[in-house]
Specification:
By secondary structure, this protein is an alpha/beta fold. The chain is 38% helix and 17% strand.
Length: 341
């Protein structure tokens, strides 16, 4: 057992200097991988090295990353070294992160690798990489185990309703997600309808503003669980996601599209919204990325859109911990632009 400040952990803890020395060793770096059952590394970025010899590399100089998440113990999550994937600011955070990684090590590893990649990629490149990673995990044993143990969803009694309400008000296009009885869960029908509505906005120059809201108690409760696991062909699923990409279209319309959200904004509910430059959230809103707990990663564009708004370390915290973020914290992070009552 190791004690550091207000953390008590059962894993070896490295200083930033010791971490950098470790990754300079080729053999050691190879084995810092989930393939060798190294599920994460914990680094106290505030602790000085126990080795009195100065480090010629410097704590921010290396770009050599292990193939597993790097968790930093720190009093705050700002200005952390580039090698850090996710920050634990208290004991509760550390337990959430390590437990989640232990439960789904492959999903957590692919997530941080993807976030590292997308930090230096274009939006289109990031979405392409996200789709490939998501398709890969859809056929993993961890996701299959989650599918086998999940509660069976109720049948969709509102299947005859239009998934969207579209109204034109002069130069403004109003789009309302209309699966209120399902908390606007994001299914294939809603995705296709939203793409067509956004394509209208993209192709009609007389539309100056597009406003997107949700009917009912929630803006969007994430992907529809009834459709999870429906993909049998990973390549075909990837082709479908990247051929008619709602995320990419939203990015292209980011300056003219505004979201007004409330209640649950889970998974796709915040991943898609985050492409816009303007998100107004009701004070009761909360935001959550639960996919890693299912053996997946965010798959509606969140590894690009959310990361671009709040940085990859906070995105990794949301996705790995599965913790709910309230409107005040979302505003403080820059995940949303304003709070309304």
């Amino acid at each position: 057992m190791t004690t550091t400040g207000y953390f008590i952990v059962m894993e070896p803890i490295l200083s930033a200097t010791e971490f950098n020395r470790l990754v300079q060793n080729e053999r050691a770096l190879d084995e810092l991988s989930v393939a060798f059952d190294q599920r994460y590394i914990i680094v106290d970025t505030n602790r000085a090295s126990s080795d009195p010899v100065s480090d010629p590399v410097g704590i921010n100089a290396t770009n050599r990353q292990p193939q597993c998440p790097v968790i930093a113990l720190a009093a705050n999550d700002v200005k952390q070294p580039a090698f850090v994937d996710v920050v634990a600011q208290c004991e509760e955070d550390l337990v959430l992160l390590t437990s989640a990684i232990d439960n789904n090590p492959l999903a957590a590893t692919l997530l941080v690798q993807l976030l590292r990649h997308n930090e230096h990629s274009t939006v289109e490149q990031g979405l392409y990489a996200e789709s490939l990673s998501y398709s890969c995990l859809q056929h993993s044993d961890d996701f299959k185990q989650w599918l086998a143990t999940r509660p069976q969803p109720d049948s969709d009694n509102a299947s005859n309703e239009s998934p969207l309400i579209i109204q034109r008000d002069a130069s403004q296009l109003n789009i309302t997600l209309n699966r209120a009885s399902k908390h606007n869960a994001y299914n294939a029908a809603l995705r296709d309808a939203l793409y067509e509505a956004l394509m209208l906005a993209a192709s009609d120059n007389s539309i100056v503003t597009t406003m997107i809201r949700g009917a009912g108690p929630s803006f969007c409760a994430g992907g529809d669980l009834q459709e999870f696991g429906a993909a049998r062909d990973a390549a075909a699923a990837h082709a479908a996601r990247t051929t008619r990409s709602t995320a990419l279209l939203l990015d292209r319309l980011s300056l003219t599209t505004q979201f007004v959200v409330h209640g649950a904004c889970i998974g796709a509910g915040i991943e898609l919204s985050a492409f816009s430059r303007s998100i107004s959230a009701h004070r009761d809103s909360f935001f959550q990325l639960p996919e890693v707990a299912m053996g997946l990663i965010p798959g509606a564009g969140g590894t690009v859109s959310i990361s671009n708004r709040i940085g990859r370390q906070r995105t990794a915290f949301m996705a790995i911990s599965n913790k709910k973020i309230d409107a005040e914290q979302a505003l403080n992070w820059g995940l949303i632009n304003r709070i309304h009552d």
